[in-house]
UniProtKB/TrEMBL annotation:
It comes from Achromobacter pestifer. The lineage of its organism: Bacteria, Pseudomonadati, Pseudomonadota, Betaproteobacteria, Burkholderiales. Keywords: Cell outer membrane, Ion transport, Iron, Iron transport, Membrane, Receptor, Signal, TonB box, Transmembrane, Transmembrane beta strand, Transport. It is a multi-pass membrane protein. GO terms for biological process: siderophore transport. PANTHER family: FERRICHROME IRON RECEPTOR-RELATED, HYDROXAMATE SIDEROPHORE RECEPTOR FHUE. It is found in: Cell outer membrane. The keyword Cell membrane does not apply. This is Ferripyoverdine receptor. It holds the Pfam family TonB_dep_Rec_b-barrel.
Amino acid sequence: MTLSAGRYSIAATRRAGAAPCFVLSSLVLAVGLAISAAPGAARAQSATVSIDIGAQPLGDALLQWAAQTKVRVFYAPDVVAGLSTRGLRGSLPPEEALRGLLQGTSVAYRWQGDSIILSREGGVTSLAPVTVLGSSDPQVTEGTGSYTTPATSAATGLTLSLRETPQSVSVVTRQRIEDQNLRSLDEVMGNVVGVQVVSEDSDRTDFWSRGFYIDSLQYDGVPTTIGLSMYGESDNDSFIYDRIEVVRGATGLMTGAGNPGASINLVRKHANSKTFTGSVSAGFGSWNQYRGTVDMSTPLNEEGTVRARMVALYQGRDSYIDLYHANKQVFYGVIDADLTPSTRLSVGADYQDKRPRGSTWGSLPVVFSDGTATDWRRSKTTAADWTYWHTTNQTMFATLSHRFDSDWEVKADWSQRKSKYDAKLLYLYGELDRETGTGLRPLPGYWNSYAQQTSLDLQVKGPFNLLGRKHEVVMGAMRSRYGEDFYRYGFDSASLASTGNFYQWDGSFAQPTWTTASLRPTVTHQEGAYGAIRWSLTDSLTAITGGRYATWKSKSDTRDQKDSQFIPYAGVIYDVNDTYSAYASYTDIFQPQDNRDRNGNYLDPVQGKNYEIGVKGEYLDGRVNASIALFKVKQSKVAVLDGDALVPGSFEQAYTTADGVTTKGVELEVSGQLAPGWNAYAGGTYYTSRDAQDVSVNPERPRAMAKLFTTYRLPGDFSKLTVGGGVNWQISTYSEVSAGDATVTAKQKAYAIYNLMARYDFNSRLSAQLNLNNLFDKKYYLGGVGNQVYYGEPRSVFVNLTAKF
């Protein structure tokens, strides 16, 4: 027999004489643990909550009921096996909602303290393994059906509600990922408030927030050094993640560097189910897209204390861009084991492999040599028919955590990530003659690169009492080693053909003769120790103070640098009432840079200060979160594009630095369930960024953006249908580019992209979903580098069929 409350589980085996006593004591202790683990989930039989549960298998419906009511449910698997429910929606007391779900199922329930125990009517208490619903981790979003989360630890390491966190945090939940069909990290980031996605070419994507480049990426809270775009990290498939968290502003406390843009945290799915469950899907869409997925979870022992989850997918697609085709394979597996009632071990691995052909390096000319603007068809390519950019990322990880009776927790995270890319590409550069189509010159490139990062993070956190009040503290230390071997092949320039008339370009350009490769190794070491205390000053006032001491050392044939910095952090939160909190936060900025100047020298680290004040609101028992934030960033040594200059000996864009850069702005965000059946996410950003001479910095980044997406499940006889839609808007931008001996201004007009979705539940296990993106087929620039532009995707459609079991 197993009774479990979150991580707590007690197993009993039948032994003569001892079994009845042991079973009884196990039952008493397990129920006691369940009650103590959910003190806020009082019976509240008369308090109403918002319920939105569709027709589906009863076990899945109970999972949603537990998440929406915060009440734990115990039952043996055979109690719900083969049963379904018609679903339920409305504002109801939890018990009334449960009765509605169980109607016609022959399943009975009874209260045991603050928990529910289910059994078949007329049956007896089962000695089979017992399933418990209601995750012990409040941050998990899978199965909640929500667009928000009750808690996050991404900003400070402390598990706090969004309202208690003195920074701007966006959490893209599992439900929102599925509703919007956001299949990759770049698609997710394109739908986060304040974030701009910039495509340099067909396979490299960068992210910017508040006008700053985002180079901070974490997996389950562990920072990584591997770059986002070169190794394909920006195209990570979202299917293996429970949620994606974005902390905007400087995040040096948790990441080791204080870049003021944002930090991205990818949180993997885990094996939380103690019964066999899963799903399969198949999807088809524009440009011969096809995608198949499998996601299965199962217990590995009778008690369910050891569980496994396996995720796999395969995707292939052509493109709106000529010659381009890409295949992607993803595998992920994890084993979660409750070693003791308070000790958990997670061990897993993931593998992502992307193999595109017809890859572009760079984009299309934005102006002709006479300074007039170009207007290409969106299918136009600069690739050759032999180009490709293969990327592979594989990770092994392990997490061991233990919670003490005093509510203190210690956790150790280890991970090793191996990445590689193999690319043969062709770059077309120069000034294009508008009349003849000539003037572009070819530059081929052939690279292999292998990177490996090993990280270890130790963390301890818990409460303590001081001066009659309860406070919380988190402390930790991390160490990582990153090594990269970069091979660059030369080529015989005599073997290069002419590009000819670019108007007639079809990619049939002869591959050059490659010569011997040169090796450029790089090794980077990072170490850090951090800590933060959440002080309960009064019933309404809390403060968070802390900091991180970080050391950084990097060595290569072109670089031998090391640095260290203490990064302070401070925040204060005042609860105005039960709904609103006002907050303010401050942290230093320290960010080593990989950008180089026109002389080939690496830029000095960015330094500065980050300020933020705001108001946060929590509505409808936490089902809706909203915030408004004012931010100000003062920096020195900020990287800005150095016109069209390149790093010597390469076609890497050169940068220079700007001092006295001040960025200030405002952000608004709201997310959650506004009413039964109605989920919504909306947000907007406006900011300015100017240097000491009052000159606009990085004007190619939009100063204002707004994003909205909402879904609604129809009531009554139409409750099997969910419809939704949204819009992403950005203000106009410009950049200065060269044309002959002159400098001209290239502009991108303001634009809005509208998207729609619809999902139909045929029955409790089978559903179909349609997503239509760029409804009005808007033509716009999604990015580009220097004198080049990359067009965004035209109107597209994707249909997905999902079966659950």
